[in-house]
Amino acid sequence: MNRSEPMAPVQQVWFRADGKLPDNQVLHTCLLTYASGMTLLDTTPMPHGTGAIGGDAQMASLDHAMWFHGTFRADEWLLYDQHTPASTGARGLATGRVFTHDGRLIASVMQEGLIRKVESSS
Prior knowledge:
This protein has 122 residues and is mainly beta. It is built from 1 helix and 5 strands. It starts with 9 loop residues before the first strand and ends in a 5-residue tail after the last strand. β4 and β5 form a beta hairpin. Strands 1-3-4-5-2 form a 5-stranded antiparallel β-sheet, with helices on one face. The protein has a single domain (20-117), classed as Thiol Ester Dehydrase, Chain A.
C-alpha cells in the first residue's frame, strides 16, 4: 500500500489475543481497551498522503473514549472498523466500531489526536 498518495480515511483490522484467556470479562475488556488505541489514529493522515507507518508523521493521542455494548472474548477474532470523519489543522478525529466474528457490535471508540508531519533533515 502506497501511503504517499491520498487515500480514503478508512481501514479494517482483524485482531485477537494470542492464546486462550481465562473467563474474566474485565480482563477481556482491558485487552480490548489497550488494543483500541494501537491503530485508530493511523486513519487520520490517510487523506493527506502521509502516514505513521512510513515514518513521515508524528501522532499523539489527545483523548480516547469507549463504549461497550456487550460481552465478548478478546481471544477470539474481532474486526475493528475504523474511519476518520475530520482531519485538519494538525488534528484528527477517528472513530471505530468493534465487531465479533459473527457480526455483533461490541464496542464503539472515538479518539482525537495531534498529527504533525516530520520534515526531512536532508
